[in-house]
Amino acid sequence: MVKSKSHERTPKAKNKHLNHVHHKKETESSRMNLMNSVLTVTCMAVAAWFGYKGYLETRVNTPFDSEKLVAINGLDTADRYWGSYRPGLYFGMKTRDPQSLVSGLMWYRPHNLRQGGESFRHWCEQGDKLDKYGWLEHDGKTFGVQEIHDGDLIIKTSYVKKPGGRHGGDWTARIGVTSKNQEPKDTKDVKDLQKGQEISFIFYSALEDKSTGNIKASLGADNRLSGMEGYTDGLGAYRFSMNPTKGTVEEHSFLIAVTPGLNLVKETILQNLRLASQKGSNVKRIVLGGDQLPLDNEGKKSDPNFCATQVTAKVPFEFEVLFESGSVPLRKEKLTGKNFEAALSEQRKRFNDKFEKIFKLTEKGFKEDAIEFAKYAFSNLIGSIGYFYGSSQVQSVHTKSPVPYWKAPLYTGVPSRSFFPRGFLWDEGFHGLLIATWDLDIEMDIMSHWFDLMNSEGWIPREMILGSEALAKVPEEFVTQISTNANPPTFFLTLQYILNTRESELLDRHYKLLDKLYPRLHAWFEWFNTTQVGDLPGTYRWRGRDSLTNRELNPKTLTSGLDDYPRASHPNIDERHVDLRCWIAFAAGVMTRLAELLHHPADKYRETHRYLTDNDVLNTLHWSPTSQSYADYGLHTDKVELRRPSAPPRSPASPELIRIVLEDPSLKFVDTTFGYVSLFPFILQVIKPDSPHLEKVLGDLAKPELLWTKYGLRSLAKTSPLYGKYNTEHDPPYWRGPIWINLNYLTLRALNWYAETPGPYQAKAKKIYQDLRENIIKSMLMQFKKTGFIWENYGDVYGEGKGSHPFTGWSSLVVMIMAEIY
Predict the structure, then answer these.
(1) pLDDT attached to residue 649
(2) What DSSP string runs through 438-484?
(3) 139-167 in b/e burial notation, b at 16+ Cβ within 10 A?
(4) Distance between CA atoms of 544 and 566, rounded to whole angstroms?
(5) Tell me, what's the pLDDT at 99?
């Protein structure tokens, strides 16, 4: 059978078919390869994106890549290893060690406590309403003497350290109580006097949260606590002993327990107080519960981390607490009794001699009461230096929620023992002026701790809340630190002051440290100069303002340090803030000087400083031709009010006032607001000495309707629309009228500089300087005598102390004002 030709394939046709099939396979293979390549590239891109996203997320809590400035072990500075580093307590000692042994003091009046009275004292609390408390003398290293006025009782705490051994040496604290020589103030005091003025003191030792080591009680034959002893890695072996030196002990008891944390020490004590009959009588007294250790899963007692002893005695009474380091080999004599008195007397003499040598207040003609006031102000600043360890809580734009910072130590001053017993970045630059004047080693140590907290982007959190005690004092809304938010770079203020007054000592003793600090200073400056820039060249704006709020009359600018000081009413990218521009100009000048001193390239800083201090550019951006003053610029209207919105019929009224805008805002100078911010080109000496604008600023300073008062310069002019206004229904004016000592100090510093620098307005600056200085000193001293405290700020109408107290952070700059050290 012959096959049809149509079913036959010639070789050519067959090859054509094979070629087609082969081409099809090649095409499919190429397509598959292409798809695989695209898939690979896509996967790589996705992986790279997630990797980069992860990198961005971790930058906020990645430490700056440079050699640390501080060794974790506080024994590297043995003279500062022990100290009164728990500023939030009326009296407490601890080591500069991440896992520290701490000690503390509590007291109460037994009768008042049984009656439900709030007489239990431990943490410094404004609610305790003490008449007065604070360090009378403190040198920051060796000793301190404190006086506490609690109703009709005067409690004195003093301590002295004695070097020796390998773990910071020994120290002794003496605590005594006496009655005031005056009539009882109220019925409660009369009852206390009739009962013989009993008081109960509790002294305790405890291990810092999650510390390794041990602590135990030493009990005598009568089952009384004779001492406390233990071991930590930082301290080695140690022992406490407590001995009455005056008066009679009515009752003695002790407690061995586990406390959940240092923030709950008081609660641990209160939970373990009980009434017990005194031996041989029907008298019942409040005593501690003895051994209160919980049992573990195996029925064994847990290891204690807390040990306390209580003595109840009649006033007057005095006792000593002796801490002894196990590393001291042989002691010829103990630091108690007359030996303690001799050592304390010697340290007090050294303190007083050094105080006069540095500040020369006697030489300047100040009377004894003013000098004692100055010693109190200084001693409470340096005596409130704390040591903290822990992890802060931070957030960046790349993290969905707050993340923990790395664990780190912080050795720092604090603004207020009662209200702000933690580290604040911009406060510390002001503290450093006074601390560096007294002891450059301490200040460089503090600065090093702060700059070790810098992250990989060059950012330092504006508020450091480390450890359970510090966290317990902070409202939740202020805990998380945002990495886009700045704070005034006042450490440049400290550095410039050190360079001006102690450059040779700095280079002789701290050149190596300064050279290690420089890369961090460089990164800090660059962070400011990139993250805080404005929309126009040469402009800057504080980040962190809430443009969406309808609760605040004027959205706060916490990052500026001036909280509720009025800025543009509607925050946006067009804002430019004159104070921030001046801070960056100032910092550029300091960086220029440091770069030259350390032989680093300085041209970039020099050029930045030259540009930012160019008065023509400054005036173009920030001089208001309408008000003839320096001002912020932004989207603004003064026509804003807080009102309670009307509710629908039969509906409850709105619980909160909200902001009502009565006029559309427009871009303009915020020149109806005049106050501290308006002064910054003057305060940081950006204005040229021969500028006619300087004459206008000096004239405005002295006008009572603006900032001048007989108590100091108010923060906001009486003519400003928001002067004295609440920012919300519950937020009273803060930087809207009250007098702040840090800004008055900077103003005096500038007045002194313009008075001494050749120019046409020297005499005018000198006269204002003299009058302002006299007003501040006189007013603060008067308020101290009247109230017993130095205050956060002062009223601009009557000069009364306002805000938190004692506030012996930057308000202690009154000592520098008295000494005329700028």
Answers:
(1) 72
(2) H-HHHHHHHHHHHHTT-BTTS---SEE--SHHHHTTS-GGGTEEETT
(3) bbbbbbbbbbebbbbbbebbbbbbebbeb
(4) 14
(5) 85
First to last CA, the chain: 122
Dihedral angle at the C-alpha atoms of 757, 760, 764, 770, nearest 10 degrees? 10
In 10 A of CB 239, how many CB atoms? 15
d(CA 768, CA 699): 9
Residue 791 one-letter amino acid? W
| Average pLDDT estimate for 101-126 | 87
Contact 387, 85 (CB under 8 A): yes
Taking the C-alpha atoms of residue 485 and residue 487, their distance in angstroms, rounded to an integer, is 7
Active-site residue identified among 125, 563, 614, 756:
563
Alpha-carbon gap, residue 749 to 755, rounded angstroms: 10
Sorted by sequence, the CB contacts under 8 Å of residue 173 that are 6+ apart come out as 91, 93, 157, 158, 159, 320, 321, 323
How far, in Å, CA of 620 to CA of 633, rounded? Answer: 11
Q: Which amino acid is at 252?
A: H
Q: What pLDDT is recorded for position 14?
A: 46
Active site residue 128: no
How far is residue 457 CA from its own chain's centroid?
Answer: 22
**Which residues are bridge partners to 95 per DSSP?**
82
Contact 490, 434 (CB under 8 A): no
Cβ atoms within 10 Å, residue 419? 18
What letters, b where the CB count within 10 A reaches 16 and e where it falls short, cover 344-354? Answer: beebbeebeee
pLDDT of 5 > 60? The answer is no
Q: What would the DSSP string read from start to end of 156-191?
A: EEEEEEE--TTTT-EEEEEEEEEE-SS---SHHHHH
Write out pLDDT tens, residues 354-399. 999 999 999 999 999 999 999 999 999 999 999 999 999 999 999 9
Residues 6+ positions from 222 with CB-CB distance below 8 Å? none
Task: Tell me which of 107-116, 253-262, 415-424, 764-773 is least confident.
Answer: 107-116
Length of the chain: 822
DSSP 549: -
Q: Which two tokens stand for residue 814?
A: 């009154």
322: helix, strand or coil: strand
Rounded to the nearest angstrom, the gap between the alpha carbon of residue 18 and the centroid of all alpha carbons in its chain is: 83
Instruction: Look at residue 209 and give its three-state secondary structure.
Output: coil
Q: What is the C-alpha to C-alpha distance for residues 656 and 729, in angstroms, rounded to an integer?
A: 7
Residue 601 preceded by cis peptide, ω within 30:
no
Q: Which residues contact 373 (CB under 8 A, 6 or more apart)?
A: 780, 781, 784, 785
Structure tokens at 581: 């521009």
| Rounded-to-integer distance, Cα 188 and Cα 694, Å | 59
pLDDT at 10 over 50: no
Identified catalytic residue from 251, 427, 469, 792: 792
Residue 653 has pLDDT above 80, yes or no: no
CB 416 within 8 A of CB 801: no
Q: Which of 86, 438, 410 is nearest to 262 (CA)?
A: 86
Cα–Cα distance between 383 and 375 in angstroms, integer?
A: 11
Buried b (16+ CB within 10 A) or exposed e, 219-234: eeeeeebbbbbbebeb
Distance CA 414, CA 426 (A): 11
Give the residue, 105 or 42, on which the prediction is more confident: 105
Judged by DSSP in three states, 728 sits in coil
Is residue 774 flagged as an active site residue? Answer: no
Question: Torsions phi, psi of 300, nearest 5?
Answer: -95, 150
Pair of tokens at residue 808: 């012996």
- Cβ neighbors of 519 (< 8 A, separation 6 or more) are 66
Is residue 335 a contact partner of residue 250, using CB atoms and an 8 Å limit?
Answer: no
Its pTM stands at 0.91
Strands of 670-809 (E only): list them.
Answer: 708-709, 712-713, 793-794, 801-802
Do residues 803 and 793 make contact, with C-beta atoms less than 8 angstroms apart? yes
